[in-house]
Please model this.
Amino acid sequence: MVQLHDKTFEPFLSELEIQEIVKEMAHKMGVLKDEKPLFIIILKGSFIFASDLVKALDYDVELCFMQLKSYEGTQSSGKIKDIMGIPQQIKGRTLVVVEDIIDTGNTLEYLNQHLLAEQPQKIYYASLLLKPSVYKKPLTIDFVGKEIPNEFVVGYGLDYEELGRTLTQIYKLKIS
Model:
């Protein structure tokens, strides 16, 4: 068990399970090698996952970072805040957007509209975790590490009110 602020979390995915998921995703992403993709890492949650993912690839990639925020506490606010926008020229590039978790897809939809306005050649979406029971957007998630139930999770970059990111495992909110 882990206590973060006023909430208790219980183990959900072990460090070993996470590393196996990352290796499998990197293997599947081998199909992008010849496209010389630009990986857009969505901060803050994706930074640990993205670091492990790009190290597991068998090819080199360019990286850039964006920061968006949609969560307040354990719930999506429904509003997207663009804290750090697109940092470089993406016109004509193949992009891989790297997310830690996709649930409602509101952030993804917002991001997709902004990226398409810059005229990339192709956009792929990769997420460590996906909550299919709440994701109802038409955008395809090209690379999914693991589908999970609609539970609030922390660890491995994911946070609750800025705590829990450095946990090496992923924990789910304990319902008492």
In short: Residues 15-68+83-153 form a domain with the Rossmann fold fold (CATH 3.40.50.2020).
